[in-house]
Amino acid sequence: MIEVIGLTKKFKEVTAVDNVSFKVDAGEIVGLLGENGAGKTTTLRMISTMLKPTSGTAKVCGLDLLKEPDKVRKKIGILFGGEVGLYDRLTARENIKYFADLGGLSSEEANKNIELLAEMLDMKEYIDRRVGKFSRGMKQKVAIARAIVHNPDVMLFDEPTIGLDVSSSAIVQDFILDCKKKGRAIIFSSHSMREVEKLCDRVVIIHKGRLVYDGRVEDLRREYNGEDLEKVFLRLVGDKNE
C-alpha cells in the first residue's frame, strides 16, 4: 500500500534523504528509525505530499504522489510530533469535525466517527470542552483523532506518544495495533525502542539520509545475537558517524 521508490530530497547543498526505497503492506507496521537529523521526518513529509521530492517518488494505494497528490492526501492520515496545531477556541469535537469536513465526510459519517474515536481514545469526558486549557496528552489524543477521522488506508505517525503519560501511551499503542488489525498500512517513527519492539513488524533504519537496514525486527536481533534493539540500533548508526 506504500511503495517508496528512490526518494531523494536536497536542500541547496545538503542531501537530507538520499535514494531511499522501501515498502509497507496492508496490515503492517513499519518502524522508521534514525537519529535526529537522519531524514525520517523529511521522508514522511514527502510521502504525505507536504514536500516535493528532488527525485524519486512514492506510491500510496497505487497512486503516484507526484502525479495525483490530491488523491494521495485523501488516502493518508498524518500525525507529526511537536506542536499539535489545534484551534484553542474550538472544542475537541469541533477541531475533529473541521478536518472531517475537509476530508469530504458527510455530517452523519463525521459524527459517527468522532463518537467512536472519543470512546477509543478515552476522550468522552472532554470531547465538548475547548482545547485551549487541555494538557499536552489531551491535545495529542485530539490531534490523533483529527488525523484519522476520515478512515484513511495509510497512516503516518511521527512520535505519536510524545508528551503522554503511561496510561495514555498505552491507549494510543492499542489504537495503532487496532489499525493494523483493520488492514491499514502504517509507518511509525519513534525514539522509543521499547515502543518499536512492541508495535512494529519491520524496521527501516536510515542514517544521514541513507538506508542502512530494512527487515524484520526478530531477524535484526538474531543477526546481532539477540541484543536488545536499542543496542543494535546504536551499532548500526554509531559506527557510521565519520
Structure commentary:
The chain has 242 residues and is of the alpha/beta class. It has one domain (2-238): 3-Layer(aba) Sandwich (Rossmann fold), CATH 3.40.50.300. It is 38% helix and 25% strand. The chain has nine helices and ten strands. Strands 6-7-8-3-9-10 form a six-stranded mixed beta sheet, sandwiched between helices. Strand 4 (55-60) and strand 5 (63-64) form a beta hairpin. Helix 3 (92-102) crosses helix 4 (107-120) and helix 3 packs parallel to helix 5 (136-148). The mean pLDDT is 91.
Descriptive key words:
242 residues; 6-stranded mixed β-sheet; 38% helix; alpha/beta; single chain; 9 helices; globular; Rossmann fold
Secondary-structure map:
Blueprint: E1 2-11, E2 14-24, E3 29-33, H1 40-47, E4 55-60, E5 63-64, H2 69-75, E6 76-79, H3 92-102, H4 107-120, H5 136-148, E7 154-158, H6 166-181, E8 185-189, H7 193-199, E9 202-207, E10 210-216, H8 217-223, H9 229-238
Parallel strand pairs: 3-8, 3-9, 6-7, 7-8
Antiparallel strand pairs: 1-2, 1-4, 4-5, 9-10
Order of helices and strands: EEEHEEHEHHHEHEHEEHH
| Percentage of β-strand residues | 25-35%
Average of pLDDT: 91
Per the CATH scheme, the topology name is Rossmann fold
**Low-confidence spans: pLDDT under 50, at least 5 residues?**
none
Order of the strands making up the biggest sheet? 6-7-8-3-9-10
The CATH superfamily is identified as P-loop containing nucleotide triphosphate hydrolases
Structural class of the helices, strands and pairings?
A: alpha/beta
End-to-end C-alpha gap: 35 Å
Helix content: 25-40%
Taken from the alpha-carbon principal axes, the silhouette is globular
Give the strand tally. 10
Rg, alpha carbons: 18 Å
Domain module count: 1
- Report on the biggest sheet: 6 strands, mixed
Second-tier CATH architecture:
3-Layer(aba) Sandwich
CATH class: Alpha Beta
Given the structure, what is the number of helices?
9
